[in-house]
Amino acid sequence: MAVPKLRFKADDGNDYPNLEEIKLDTLMALKNGINASGDKFGRGTKCISVMDILNNSCITYDVIKGEVDVDEKILQNFTVEYGDAVFQRSSENVQDAGRANVYMDKDRPATFSGFVIRGKRIANYEPMFMNGLLNTFSVRKQIMSKAQGAQHINVGQEILSSVRVNMPSLPEQQKIAEFLSTIDTVIEKQKETVSAWEERKKGVMEKLFCQKIRFKTDEKSEFPEWREKQFGEIISEFKEKTEIENEDTLLSCAINGIFLNSELFGHQRGQSNIGYLKIKKGTLVLSTQNLHLGNANVNMRFEHGIISPAYKTYNIVGCSVEYMNQWIKWDTTKRFFYNATTVGASGCRRNVDWNLLYSQKIDVPCPEEQEKIVECLSALDDVVEKQKETLCAWENLKDGLLQQVFILSLI
Question: What is the DSSP string of 234-284?
């Protein structure tokens, strides 16, 4: 007989009944979402999208980003209420096929888009328990093995209907839900702590880089006034390209840093990397398009590697590498880059006017004050990182406990 590794007991100490294996369509009625014209979106009733499914541990009315303007009859047919499940219909990879979430707002119903499948609750299950169950490896494996498609991986109602789940009794579901809710509360509070420290750092950066706060020397005297320089005086472009395949570690530049290519894409890209740019620790990497969105990084992580020639690479010559690494993360720096861009031919991208970028002026402190600024901001980075580690530890603990609650063993 298959049983979870971790079972709960009733308040009187007795065991709950054995689990019952049933098909998903006995618990919920499946339906595809609204296919409205583009001009209907952006106003009206909150409309659950794929991103709402992926970006939230559970969905409530307030976290839904999109809206759709449809009549009352359509809303009645496409309502999402407390306890209903929602599934991702199409994805670019099999790992995200049929990702699920459960609507947890008891007071305000929503609706759902055409890229979503709703599972309308028709049985008396505990929604928080169902939210955990639908994201277990057992359920995910069943869905992924049946998902279809080449460029896009699709999951239909018939696939979801065939999924088999092991259901404990409702009282045990409620015990598990209370348990998960307690951990989720701790995790959400820790996320708030991380966000609060990140906001504190942003506030400090603003004051330091705008010179609203100035440091003093160790002897308590004033540092020199900051010098105005052109951005082109601070950086020096270099291009050192690979001549053989896989000459070095393949890296990728993203908005939030430089990573191993495998970290972002789960594999090494199949295309040739001859002609890729060599970078080293301390190299500044700038995107040639949409730079203003934040795709600018100083490589502080890897001793060396190679990166796509779609970027430009620079030595930092007019300030310290560490100072540039902090300045590049300042929110106002995005505006600095935006001011050196023009709308591309497609109208949706902004291209960098490099001469304009290099001629723009910034104020740079003396090396000693740069060091003080870096020390201050790095200390805040350390606090943020420790808070993120605490968050990760709680999330790992939850994952481990979920394995014990939902993964079955044979006895």
Answer: HEEE---B--STT-S-BEEEETTEEEEHHHHHSS--SS--TTPEEEETT-E
